[in-house]
Amino acid sequence: MTRKINWNDYRNFVEDEFRCKQTGRCEMNPEFMDRLQELRTDYGKPMIINSGFRHVTHPVEMRKARPGSHTFGRAVDVLVSHEDALDLIILARMYGFTGFGVAQKAGSTRFIHLDDMEPSATRPRPTIWSY
Known about the structure:
Layout: H1 30-43, E1 48-51, H2 59-62, E2 75-79, H3 83-94, E3 99-103, E4 111-115, E5 127-130
Parallel strand pairs: 3-5
Antiparallel strand pairs: 1-2, 2-4, 3-4
């Protein structure tokens, strides 16, 4: 049985940050959130969440061949750029995050995707990609 999230446990985050922009649902994984709060505490800077949970009907997920880590409540996109982006990736790896997406092109939203998915035949981990 999965533990229910007590949002009071996450002093740097609120549930609304993680809601699916398509459905309004928020089904973040508690273990992921524990890891994210530990990362945020050590990082020592604000982490603005651009995307958290995504329902499988979210337009981004509908374009994929299979549901991504956001649909499992095990991923976030954090608005961050420049040297802060690299600092966040290095620290996140130390906390057990395994997926790192880098969107840092000028003129677009700059963010880092973080997830903690387990490796599988179709999802090697750790891994890094760019958007």
